[in-house]
Specification:
Helix 8 runs antiparallel to helix 9. A two-stranded antiparallel sheet has the order 1-2. The chain has one domain. The chain starts with a strand and ends with a helix. The chain contains 10 helices and 2 strands.
Length: about 300
């Protein structure tokens, strides 16, 4: 470990420090140093026995070969910002893998005619996938011990991804392949733009927790009413889809800022990378379904 000073005041503090190894009453007596130190002591160089104040910025841990590796601590570089950046990279790596699987299912179910017809002829499999999606979502959202403990968190997240991807593929099988590609492209552009906006804007969307929850309840009620009115009012499902697209776009900004941390009112703990990836995927999941409903051609 190398201890170094960075300014003149620190040198003065070192020179003015009293020796620790010798009592005050021994100064000037034979065998004891004088008040200025031992004879021949070079001025400005701290010697053993002197009390030297150590500050965090003055500590450097060097490797045996002289290179500064993972143990390099200079200026307290291992701050919350460093941990948060590593957390964000991990979340987006997991999210990217989930989106690749989901996109593969969507394109397969919409472009392969045999799989498209099989999916439309076996609607009960779609219902099972939705049930599996709900169960795995509840487990990951409510059971902290599961989502924080490997390998169960990755196993449950993999099951969630497969169930969500299958349900998206089953829905896509009812639309023309060109419409599905258009919806995928629009979703990608919208989500990328919203993510960049969330990282750059000074507006704190995490303060909208209550308003967004009320909007979700309104969407749920409108969806229930739409079950009975969609035949009478064909535009009803388009209205719900538009409202859903706007709502979950706001949720995507909200959840992204919670993952970012910083000066936002609410933030997700760096240990909750599974939960963060889950929430972002669900936002994109609902945005895609809404856009597919708006632009899709059955």
């Amino acid at each position: 470990m190398v201890i170094h000073s960075q300014d003149r005041d620190f040198h003065q503090q070192v020179l003015m420090a009293r020796p620790l190894a010798f009592p005050q009453q021994g100064y000037g007596q034979p065998g004891y140093p004088t008040a200025g130190g031992y004879p021949g002591m070079q001025p400005g160089i701290p010697q053993m026995g002197f009390q030297m104040p150590i500050r965090p910025n003055d500590i450097v841990i060097e490797q045996p070969d002289g290179d500064k590796g993972m143990n390099h601590i200079e200026g307290l570089e291992f701050t919350d910002k460093t941990i948060r950046r590593a957390f964000i990279r991990k979340v987006y790596f997991i999210l990217f893998a989930m989106l690749v699987v989901a996109t593969g299912f969507v394109l397969t179910f919409s472009h392969v005619e045999s799989i498209r017809m099989w999916s439309r002829a076996n609607r009960h499999i779609y219902i099972l996938s939705v049930v599996g999606l709900l169960i795995t979502t509840l487990i990951l959202a409510c059971c902290e011990g599961v989502r924080r403990k490997a390998p169960w968190n990755f196993i449950c997240l993999s099951l969630f991804t497969l169930a969500a991807s299958f349900s998206l593929g089953a829905v896509s099988s009812y639309f023309k392949a060109e419409s599905v590609l258009l919806a995928v492209g629009i979703t990608a552009v919208v989500c990328l733009g919203l993510t960049l906006f969330a990282f750059q804007t000074k507006w704190d969307f995490t303060k909208l927790n209550g308003a967004l929850f009320v909007a979700v309840l309104i969407l749920f009620v409108l969806s229930l009413v739409g079950i009975f009115l969609r035949d009478r009012y064909p535009w009803w499902h388009l209205m719900i889809a538009g409202f859903s697209a706007v709502l979950f776009s706001l949720y995507l900004i909200h959840d992204t800022q919670m993952m970012m941390g910083g000066n936002h009112k609410y933030q997700i703990s760096p240990e909750e990378y599974i939960f963060a990836a889950l929430t972002l995927f669900l936002d994109i999941y609902n945005i895609f379904l809404a856009i597919l409903t708006l632009v899709g051609d059955r």
